[in-house]
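Hi everyone, sorry if this is the wrong subforum. Our group has a chain we'd like a structural model of before ordering constructs, and none of us has done structure prediction before. Sequence below.
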Amino acid sequence: MKFTAVFPTLISILTSALLTVAGVTAQPLVELRACKFIQTEWADGDSFLIQTKEGASYTIRLYGADCIEWHVTDETDARRLRAQRRYFGISEFGRSPQASIDAAKALGKAAAAEVVAALAMPFTVHTGFADARGDGKYKRIYGFVITADGEDLAERLIRLGLARALGVYRETPTAKSAKDYQEYLRDVELVAAKLSAGVWAKTNWNLLSSERQEQRKEDTELGMATGAAKSSKVFTINPNSAARDELMRVPGIGELTANRIIGGRPYKQASDLLNVEGIGPKTLERLAPYLLLPDKK
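Answer:
Right subforum, don't worry. Here is the predicted structure as tokens:
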């Protein structure tokens, strides 16, 4: 179903009310036509500023695609860049960490440049205005971006080897389920890897498995260390509003699980988190002390 760009917020509210009556909790997508890209210093391939034809400005975070960090300003950014290098199997590229980092950042910058080119003509955004804060500092909303030639921007970036198929997913504007959209983008990524597109041209396939294993091991150890450090004073978060990095402070929640939690919002009670892939009864029991919800059943 398509929604006009006229009074998008009002349409969203009215449609949401109807869906709530029908028992559906997901916010409907609103179609914002004839948007234009606004150049900023901080933009990257998966997060950038747009302006609607009515003059409203939004920072959009793409569903389903994760581009390499190239604005690395703190330890969190550095850890994400390291995880991305390991995901693509390029940590040993150039035979030195600095060479690998420089190559990765260059590809992150290339993704940002590709977005500028892809969005040179007016484009369409579909969004439910879901909060897409990563580190909690900046207001962003998740969205699907369709270029002037009808191409899904996330798919384009993954196909060119400038992003990995990772992030938050939801039902698409064409009614493809979140799961189907995720699997489709993974298939696009597989083809990009086969064709050595973008970053995949630098992948050391002999080391890819061990690099990813090292990242999983590190994520587990960080969770254990964080849990031990905070055991004397447990903090709480609301899984309905916490930013990705805030969720990742909880022992045992890595980036993938954090994205899944965000994609499954909203939650009325703690037990609703059992619907999130990867969270079972034992995991929920471990997470429960950190959750701030009306009902922790």
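For your construct planning: Residues 1-25, 228-232 have pLDDT under 50 and may be disordered. Strands lie at 30-38, 47-51, 57-62, 123-127, 141-146.
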